[in-house]
Write a structure and sequence with these properties.
By secondary structure, the chain is α+β, with helices and mostly antiparallel strands. It is about 35% helix and about 20% strand. Strand 2 and strand 3 (about 30-35) form a beta hairpin.
């Protein structure tokens, strides 16, 4: 996979309801993963992102540019 100058943002948070960590890629609809640790959730969502992009390419679906940026980025820089 060719890497873009800016990559997709990943949210990572703890879910007490699920008893673990959730990671998602806001720019890629329904691209999310679960892990018992933050590291596991991140590893799983990176696999999910790769699979999402591969499936879009295989089925000739549009791939959105990485646009999502949390407000903290606007404040920080």
């Amino acid at each position: 996979m060719k890497r873009r100058k800016s990559d997709y943002h990943i949210n990572l948070f703890y879910s007490a309801e699920d008893g673990g960590y959730i990671a998602d890629v806001p720019d890629l609809k329904s691209c999310a993963a679960f892990g018992e640790t933050p590291e596991q959730a991140l590893k799983e969502v990176l696999n999910a992102k790769s699979a999402w992009l591969a499936a879009a390419k295989k089925h000739k679906k549009p791939v959105p540019a990485p646009l999502y940026r949390p407000a903290i980025y606007a404040v920080a820089g």
